[in-house]
What does this fold into?
Amino acid sequence: MPTSANSSKPKATLRWVLMLVGVIVVFGGVFLIKAMFAKGTNDFFDHMAQPAVTISATAAKQDRWSSTDAAVGTLAAINGIDVTAESGGVVRSIEFKAGQPVQAGAILVRLNTANEEAVLKALESSAQLAQVQAQRWQALGRDKLVSVDDVQTRTTAAANARAQVEAQRALIAQKTVRAPFSGVLGIRRVNLGQFISPGTAVVSLQQLDPIYVNFSLPEQMIGKIREGTPMHASIDALPGQAFTGTITAVDPQVDPATHNFTVQATLPNPGGALRPGTFARVGFDLGVVRDVVVIPQTAVSFNPYGNAVFVISKVARKPGETDAQGKPLTGDKLVVTQRFIKTGATRGDLIEVTEGLKPGEQVVTSGLLKLRNGSEVLIDNTVQPSADAQPAVQNR
It folds into this structure.
């Protein structure tokens, strides 16, 4: 019995070994066949002829640009205030209409002055009496009938009485609100019979011609911008209109928080079309002309790690190249190569290339997302992206 048990153990071990070898052979064969199919598939796609990508293209151009800069600003009135009352009182009459132009000194609002005028009459009577008494005492003083001190006392009393009259007249004048300068009135903020306190706003007054435009520039521009530099402005609220003016003031202080400084320009505004507080786009010429290489902005792929373009070049085909149907291809082909460039200023649809591109080199202007290095391309310029230095929006 022990001998029979010991002889069965090698047979069982052999069966397990054979089964394991069989499994390895079967699964190894499956994986080998799968790897062969995968390699064949990869080789097929790697060597499969790629169809040419249809794109539009243009050549980099040499141009001459004047050194310009642009900013955004806000229009401000030469003089613009809320007209206020110097003294309190009840509104007796309103002498203006909202929105009308007025001249400097024009009466806008009158307050009730009945009490002040009554006091003025009493003071005028007292001043007149004091003047008569002073004249009488001066005559007596010349005859040595009264002392010099008495004459001076009477003369001083008469002067004080006149001063009180003038002070009362000034108080009455404060009850009449006048336009401090010529301009255009806004909407009135008081009503008849309303009691107003000193400092209450009566109406807005804006001097519109000429008008300021204030804007900020980075500190790098502080040595380039000068008073007297011509400028132009466009207003979103007035499309299609251009306004020209002159830079009239440059703030000598740079804001330490933003490192910007403020510039003020003056624009003629005879028709009053420009209004304070309006957003303005400002441009100005620094008077320096330079040669630049420009391409459409659509040709540039803007990336955090650098801007790039696809440059088109002509290369000879390799022997045996075929199209998607297997037909042989001959002659030269157009391929693209991605190239990193450095860009500069923009003007409309165009962008300056400072490094990486020469005039005359062709770049792709549309279809960039379909391309990779070495892709064959077919140029079709029947539809081209806009490439205008001064584009205009079409009203359709």
